Amino acid sequence: MSNLWKKTIERFGYPKVYCSIFLVLLLATAIILKQSIPPLLSAALIRIGQGSVLVLALVPSIISGTGPNFALSIGMICGALAGCISIEMDMIGMPAFAFAVAVSIPISIICGLLYSILQNRVKGDEMTVGTYMGYSIVSLMCIGWLVIPFKNPEMVWAIGGKGLRTTITLAGRYDKILDTLGGFQMFGQVIPVGTFLFFGACCFLMWLFLKSKTGAAMVAAGDNPRFAAASGIDVNRQRTIGTVLSMVLGGIGILVYAQSFGFFQLYTAPLQMPFLAISAILIGGATIKKASISNVISGVVIFQALLAISLPVINGLMPVGNLSEVIRIIVQNGVILYALTKVGGNE
Amino acid sequence: MSTELKVTNKKENKFNLITTLAKYSVPILFTIICIICIIVSKLPLPYIAMELVSRLDRNLFLVIALIIPVLAGMGLNFAVVIGAIAGQIGLMTIKVFDIGGVPGLALAFVIATPFAILFGYGVGKILNKTKGREMITSLILGYFANGLYQLVFLLFIGTIIPVKNPELVLAGGIGFKNAMELDLIKYALDNIINVPIMGIKIPVFTFILVALLCVFNQFIVKTKLGQNFRALGQDIHIADVAGINVDKTRIIAMIISIVLAAWGQIIFLQNIGTMQTYTAHEQVGMFAVAALVIGGATVTKATIGQAIIGTILFHTLFSLSPAAGKNLFGDAQIGEYFRSFIAYGVIAMSLFLHAWQKNVAARNKEKLG
Asked: ipTM of this model?
């Protein structure tokens, strides 16, 4: 028995095993508490779709050797900005969403390029510098959201007529446009097939990219920079590509998140969001130096399902404040902390 | 070979210039920004002075608590948040037992200290596993500790830890309320010796404590332990070869920092007078680090002078920027966002410069070797 346990841990790592056990316990509790299971599962599926692309955004950055992108919030801001532009132009439905995605890409590329200039100068310290770069851009953009001259009354504060609202509703625009695509339902619950298809397509493209020549060079550069440089690969270029891709997916990811969530959250909302994505991929079995698409899928499924189910279950068990939020903080940061200690010093 | 050496020398010279500029430019730049803020905010000078005194009183201790880990080569210690948590545990205890005044405050210090030592030991242990990544680890550790802290005081109060007082506990009987009035120790420390100068109350006793802390810091640098800290800060490998117990020394540095942070947080809250139970500690690390960095400190070098100058500049900016933003843009919020941008941005800049310097140094070494 202890042998089996050891093997399981060796194969999947502590975060994945413990989070899975916790998830099973939560489900069992839900059944014991006689909570209705289909809405729980539907909520879990919706949340999995919500966070999926954001977690995928970490793959290129980890693979190219820059570590999990702690400055992913920069990409998210690009996405949110593109989304606001689509609303400002008064677009509706799928074209609006497609437009927002299309606009977000060039913005994210520019930001990714600028950010990688910084990042290529701080090899080995990307995480620390990235975290605070992300924080400062988010707070700088707080001023941006106030002063960018958007006019649409849906987005602008009603009083004063200046500055964007903290949350911008997408109702009547592209609220749940992917989630309800095809209108799949099971037990009367929405199954977000469209979001999963979109995520699947992103994963497939990522997989194709990693198989391509550039992708292979990126893997090599991340795996062993010295060796890669010796065999003629421009390591900085590969790191730049990884960062740009990560930012682009971050931008698209926040649009996918927003359509499912129903709101754009501006101002300080993106501050802590990279941590959420990072812990998901780490739960999936990625490390600070290695990640794969399967890590993304299993990580996002376990972590987001955990978050979605913990809320009603824990509230049913213990109606104290926001206990499920507390559990999120502990799991999220505990997982990142574990990954940091696991990888050891960088000397 | 000789040409190559020349090239690297030239590069180094260029870099030295950048670093020297960076070293002094930060406080100079912020002095200018502060002066602009003072002018634009149109607030009366006595008011600004009063604000500044109370903010120095609250924050100096916390900022100085960061210095020793910097000396020991562990970077900017974002885990002071955990020290603040220890301090808050002390304050909650005296609140539960309803002991006020100077004895209550003294008791809070006494109770917080063993917790802080324990936490400092734990943080030190973890940071020893992540050498070279101390800053991101201490930041995440702070967040993680925040989660545990909330769990303990939301769930365990009233269930495992028997506290019944309805003034403190939520209506359901489980968990502390979001805010705690600390009127029983408000100004307990500040008012021990309190000299009014031109209508501004100067909390002399608190400043005496800060001065004592400065003396202690200077003293410890001179001891054998302090020498070890500095050796670690210069080169951890050489220190190891020289027979210094690296891990133990780092843990001691961390314990000192966390204990000082715990005391600093108590000083901070006795001046504020209320405690946001679940959020009072969250920003401590960011504000303290930003203040130190604005004073011109870097990841590898920090002095008491920089801590004091930095605290003055940062908090002048901090207290004035809403008013300045209102006068300049007609919106106080812009000022508020601006100050958090400054806090984050200056930390980001400092971390970036440090990492860049390290990278260039490593590359030069490689070229020479």
From this structure: 0.90
